[in-house]
Amino acid sequence: MQMIKISALFLYLFLFSSLYSSVHAAEQAMTVWLNGEQFQFGKSEPILENGVTLVPMRPILEKLDVKVNWDEATRTASGAKVGLSLSFQNGGTNATVNGKAVKLEAAPKLIQNVTYVPLRFVAETAGYKVACNQSLRQVTLTSEQQSDGSRGFLWKVENKGNTVYMLGSLHYVLDGMYPLRPEIEDAFQAAYYLGVEVDLSPEKLQKQILELGVYKDGTTLKDHIPAETYKKVTALVKANGLPENSFDNFKPWFVQQNILGIIVGNEGYQSEKGIDQYLIDKANKAKKPVISLESIDSQFQTNNNYSDSLQEKLLLQTLDPSSWVTLAPNGGIDEFAKMWKEGDYNALHEYTNSSDWDAEYHKALLTDRNAEMADKIKGYLNGDKKETYMVVVGMLHMLGDQGVVPLLEKKGFTVEKQ
Fold first, then answer.
1. CA 56 – CA 82 distance, rounded (Å)
2. Helix or strand run (H / E) with residue 193
């Protein structure tokens, strides 16, 4: 995947483009991920039938190191690897594994001259763990050596019988970011509340967009940015099938966020599958209260209060990563995803604490907001109800000299890395 050099802003403002862009994604095809990498089946894609995922037989078995033989006369497949032998027949509801009969959840079947088999059966038989998320339309296979799941950044702090788990998250992710490691899932299960930066609703978001994101003085975007930058905006929106004047009524900071959503979306990164949204969806299903550390108004005000110069630079950097603009240390969305998946605390600290940040941008994006987040968490820890919280905010807020973790430590709390 081509590296995209983009501003760090995508790490916390993640729903604007997905809710209000004119770009709508088609329904997701079923995807299969093997040890963090998407499995490519070619023209014969996986299918979901009566709740069972069926995949082309030969490519999946061979990828799982199972040598495959096919008997056309009996329409029977057999496979072998060290410690394993198996066989099954098209249309049969039983298979044989190491000489023993095993009931299948669905019979293998022929679809357009390709034999499809139940994915869970072949994967678990070959020694892989299987996690299926039908809402995300993905199945994740992990070998025993890889089964811990994405590491992420997780901390725990306790005080007066209260517990707060803090997860530094990614707001845009690829399908293969799941499953999360058990410690993250356990922290969510233990929490009475899920805390997020802001739990956005379309109605409130639309009101704020109209209040702060739109020009009301009769001017348009082209009146506020250089002509060359405006040309880059129109070229990008036209290339994505949108009218070239789609963003004329909006301010540069809001245009930048929408364009950023288009760019990362084209690379397969999606906010609706982000770590925050994944946990919000789980909380809603479990009827677990979702609370906000910030308000929609405060997030919009942060961006609306950027100087005209900073707004223009953010827009230009997003449109043209090779431009002269430097607002944050070098980094791309792929690098952030790798950092999060591996749970590389040192890399996160170094990035957040780099001297390459634009001073205005760092103060508004991180320093000021981190202090407010730390105060909110301090309030949870000093409560008298002995409750457990899970707080999920963008990972750049957590470390560095002014991160949430060191701020809490300066307030006298002991923060433990999980």
1. 22
2. strand 193-196
